[in-house]
Amino acid sequence: MAKSLLIISRQSPWSGPGAREALDIVLAGGAFDLPIGLLFLDDGVLQLAAGQNAKALQQKDLSANLQALPMFGVEELFYCAESAHARGLGQLSLDEAQPLATDQITALIDRYDQVITL
Amino acid sequence: MAAVSLIEFIMKFAIALFSAAHAPSSRRALLFAQAALAGGHEIVRLFFYQGAVFNASDAVVTPQDELDLPKQWRAFINDKQLDGVVCIAAALRRGVLNEEEAKRYQRDAISLSAPWELSGLGQLHDAVQDADRLVCFGGA
């Protein structure tokens, strides 16, 4: 059986290529049909903020790639409820992502064979 | 009391590095890799992603009285015949090119050569599947 991998994405979307590069690991895993999960934590939840204007920053829009995750076979999508709350995020742009409390995050990390935090 | 040998518990490690050559975590990654082999364990692959691509750059010039980590990685990988893979997308974005990619993108600067290999993220997933443990250094 394939080993499961959890990616914990902690970078805000516009602070450099970090968020995109974390997402690329997830997409590659999905392309290989591997059991892969993605957790948005700390500033990583900002990737889910609705109404981002990537064009104003002369950047490519990351949220379109995020929307495509379920199509790439990545359905285990989570975000830290506390991180979102602390940053005043209300409506998020990714309906499929489930909010998790801190103790649920502990259990989530336990559930995966390997973890990468980026 | 019988001595307990670590060799009885041989582990296959995949090592992923995310930080540039001058970061402390890059030095720790090398020390960990050396210790893993010294303890009789196996390293299935070293995977260099994000800023870690600079560990593989031939263009890094370290002051003489400082630790030359790119040189040490190269010697270690050569000496132990390890699989040192650098993510191609991360490397191109940061200007670390081997001869083939320099030719492809019509650049004069070649800053990556054997034993380093440029390849895709599939190599990271492959190593994760193959290893008992993935150990990451220099992530967020």
UniProtKB/TrEMBL annotation, chain A:
<keyword id="KW-0808">Transferase</keyword>
<comment type="similarity">
    <text>Belongs to the DsrF/TusC family.</text>
</comment>
<dbReference type="InterPro" id="IPR027396">
    <property type="entry name" value="DsrEFH-like"/>
</dbReference>
<dbReference type="Pfam" id="PF02635">
    <property type="entry name" value="DsrE"/>
</dbReference>
<protein>
    <submittedName>
        <fullName>Sulfurtransferase TusC</fullName>
    </submittedName>
</protein>
<dbReference type="InterPro" id="IPR017462">
    <property type="entry name" value="Sulphur_relay_TusC/DsrF"/>
</dbReference>
<dbReference type="InterPro" id="IPR003787">
    <property type="entry name" value="Sulphur_relay_DsrE/F-like"/>
</dbReference>
<dbReference type="GO" id="GO:0016740">
    <property type="term" value="F:transferase activity"/>
</dbReference>
